[in-house]
Amino acid sequence: MRESCGVFGIYAPGMNIAHTIFFALFALQHRGQESAGIAVTDDDGIKIHTGMGLVSQAFTETDLALLQGYIGIGHNRYSTTGSSRPVNAQPIIAKSGGMTIALAHNGNIINSKLLRDELQERGYDFHTSSDSEVIANLILASPGRNWQNKIEYAMRRLQGAYSLVILTEDKLIGVRDPFGVRPLCLGAIDSRWSIASESCALDHIGARFIREIEPGEIVVIDSHGVKSFKKENGKKALCIFEYIYFARPDSIIQGKLLYQAREAMGRILTEEYPVDADFVMGVPDSATAAGIGYSNASGIPYCEGLLKNRYVGRTFIEPDQRIRELGVQLKFNPLARIIAGKKLIVVDDSIVRGTTTPHVVNLLRKAGAAEVHLRICAPPIRYPCFFGVDMAARWQLIAARKTVPEIRDYLGADSLGYLSLDGLIRAVDLPRDIFCLACFTGVYPIPVQIEMDKLALEALPQEELSETRL
Ligand code: SF4
To answer: Is there a contact between 102 and 46 (Cβ–Cβ < 8 Å)?
Structure first.
């Protein structure tokens, strides 16, 4: 499993929309950097182009010129289920019984193996190892008089997280799973409609944010306008990590600007873990707002002690461990002349495996920092995620194996403070029961996940198993 993806869709009669989708994907680049793709239609079949790497690497001007159409979808991928290879790039095209759809997915389907086996028995072909192809084929295989009926039927079978944009020959459809784990929102440019993982993509293409697509909602956009179909689930489980790390600080989710939520995390960290220091700094870019919040609340000046090379990918979501470790050294350069001899409060978004943070602390110490006090915007992550985030197996999570003082020593910090769960909820300023908090609490919104956790534990080497069970 890996991290989130970014999805985008647009319905814009009279416009050629490939470049608009390209720029929207550009705005959603932070959600996935392994591959990108665009599918469009203009009443003459669905055309698609996918490529590996960043959006700017995946498309040439010629590729975009060939994507003529007024309805389209796009995707930035981080592999969740399915490995990182060209065939798994999205959108996925699926065909059956004279129907063709393109589908782009953000999330992770927990029961995809079971569904895949069933569909294969019914004669459906699979060309990728991705769970997104399972969703696409399941929709095609589902009974129903129209797309909405087919999707509703498929949703009853799907377990897990899915924010989808779907392209048929004449419709754009947005779908959000009944728990609403991943965000999805609706926007408009004049009388044209768009759907995006985050509102920042709408801003960049000049669209107005209209509203979030609700958990369990299907939005169908075609020549008859926008129609919404929705069944209440009762329980919501929006991933709290959208607020801590995944989403861009200029996006708005559940009416909250992410920048302000992160700034509040920093302020509350000041209350929970005050310490005397010369400077506060946030590990750029995801903890910058929280660092400013800590500084504002404590009165300790903020300083940019680490400069980031913005052209190196996000280390947490790099595809393999070796690149992840090398990436830390390539990514940051400390401002030695500013921080030498100073006591620093360093605010970071989260600690997952604990592979990145010791390098950051070490860089600061080598640059002459007298003290390094770490403050983290999330509680300790002790449980893996089954909703499409690569938190690693449980035994790889540093907080599942070590106490907070042990982690502090391992990271080489002078002190370590994790934001409390109550503090996090207070910072986000939304009801606690709308969130998935499972990686902190081990309480999963869908019970089957616990079974998967047990299976994952049983698959571990024995020495790692005993350590994890302690
Ligand atoms: S387990 Fe954690 S990372 Fe996964 S969806 Fe829930 S809150 Fe998000």
So the answer is: yes
